[in-house]
Design goal:
This protein is α/β, with parallel strands linked by helices. It is built from 15 helices and 14 strands. The chain has a five-stranded parallel sheet with strand order 5-4-3-6-7, sandwiched between helices. The chain has a five-stranded mixed sheet with strand order 10-8-12-13-14, sandwiched between helices. It has a two-stranded antiparallel ribbon with strand order 1-2. A hairpin with a 5-residue loop joins β1 and β2 (39-43). α9 (178-199) packs parallel to α14 and α14 (334-345) packs antiparallel against α15.
């Protein structure tokens, strides 16, 4: 009788252990809906090897882990190295081990080395929403699924004001950095509201017509491309301007006939620039970044204002001709661009707003690197 009683106790104990193990296993798995609307379940305590579909996703990882932002990244596309070398060198100085991150090229090319991803023991592949169609058409998603590699889509570029917060919260969950994500989101909302609380009072007739030239001067002889009602074009509207591109075409961006621009003669023109000199030695762009100087930025901005026909534009005549760091277009730091736009559009309303001080505070509080260089300027 005692033997049967002990057997029942042992069976119950074993059942409790199994149930407890199952509960613990379940507790470690989080299920999220990514920005592409896909449900993804992942053990966020075992994400040790991350591959980035774009190297510039490092901007977002940095705010979630100030001490070791790239320690889990084992592979990436080399766009950070090519198109923002100032930032790459800044991070390399602080974290020299990032030179060991494998350059995997474009994840959407037909020759993506799946074997390399498996060798890297990849747990998570992070992709930008703007490349969802490419990922589907190239078969990338099926390949990664077959290899057991989890994929999440985020978006800081297509719809930044709509998708930045959910993207950060998503990354916070899958990377087990929810506290840090929530802290940055609170800060982000606070910074965005410094503009929105004032701009919402502006009537349509008070708002300036603004043309933003995408990658101004990247190709020295080419003009022009701009943003529609997305990305920096959306930020123009959010800052209280009327985005020229939003009135001309739907979608993310488009080519511009200079004659149309000259006919409309916008009140304000803003170009975007970055240190593209290493990727394109002949570029005429303003080389913004952590190694930029104001003197060179002014020289290049002046040259852009002197392109054929541009000196007749009222934005050039009135010195309402500006340039800003292109990489704000793909990072959670775009509130700095928003604040800078608002100050340019309404200097009196935003006389107490200091985007430069806020950019420094962002670095001091959330980033592992310090703020140096130049990231925007106005034609003198």
């Amino acid at each position: 009788m005692m033997l049967g009683f002990n057997l029942k106790i042992a069976q119950k104990s074993l059942l409790c252990i199994l149930l407890g193990s199952a509960f613990n296993l379940q507790a470690e798995v989080v299920t999220v809906t990514d920005i592409a609307g896909r449900q993804v379940s992942i053990d966020n305590e075992k994400v040790n090897h991350i591959v980035l579909g774009e190297g510039r996703l490092a901007y977002s990882l940095a705010v979630l882990d100030k001490e070791a932002p790239l320690s889990r990244v084992v592979g990436w596309k080399d766009d950070l190295i090519k198109y923002d070398p100032d930032a790459y060198r800044k991070y390399k100085e602080k974290f020299p081990e990032i030179t060991k991150i494998a350059n995997l090229g474009s994840p959407y090319s037909g020759d993506l080395n799946l074997e390399k991803l498996i060798i890297l023991d990849t747990d998570l592949f992070i992709l930008n929403l703007g490349n969802l169609l490419k990922a589907q058409e190239s078969g990338l998603l099926k390949k990664l699924d077959k290899a057991g590699i989890k994929v999440v889509f985020v978006d800081f570029r297509q719809r930044p004001t709509q998708n930045t917060i959910p993207s950060l919260l998503l990354l916070g969950k899958v990377l087990n950095r929810e506290k840090q994500a929530n802290e940055f989101v609170d800060y982000y909302i606070q910074q965005m509201r410094k503009v929105s609380s004032v701009v919402q009072t502006k009537k349509l007739e008070e708002r300036p017509l603004v043309f933003i030239e995408k990658a101004a001067g990247y190709d020295a002889d080419a003009c022009c491309s701009t943003f529609g009602n997305a990305n920096l074009g959306k930020l123009i509207d959010e800052a209280g301007g009327i985005n020229w591109g939003s009135r001309k075409f739907p979608g993310y961006s488009g080519k511009v006939n200079p004659e149309a621009l000259f006919t409309d003669d916008p009140d304000i023109i803003i170009g975007t620039g970055a240190n593209w000199a290493e990727a394109n030695p002949n570029t005429a762009a303003v080389l913004f970044g952590y190694e930029a100087t104001e003197a060179l930025a002014q020289k290049r901005l002046k040259a852009l204002s002197e392109r054929k026909g541009w000196s007749a534009l009222k934005s050039v005549k009135n010195k309402e001709f500006y340039s800003i760091y292109h990489q704000f277009y793909n990072s959670p730091y775009h509130f700095i661009a928003l604040q800078t736009f608002a100050k340019w559009f309404y200097p009196e309303d935003f006389k107490d707003l200091n985007p430069q001080a806020n950019f420094k505070e962002l670095h001091d509080r959330f980033l592992p690197i310090d703020l140096t260089g130049v990231f925007w300027t106005k034609l003198d």
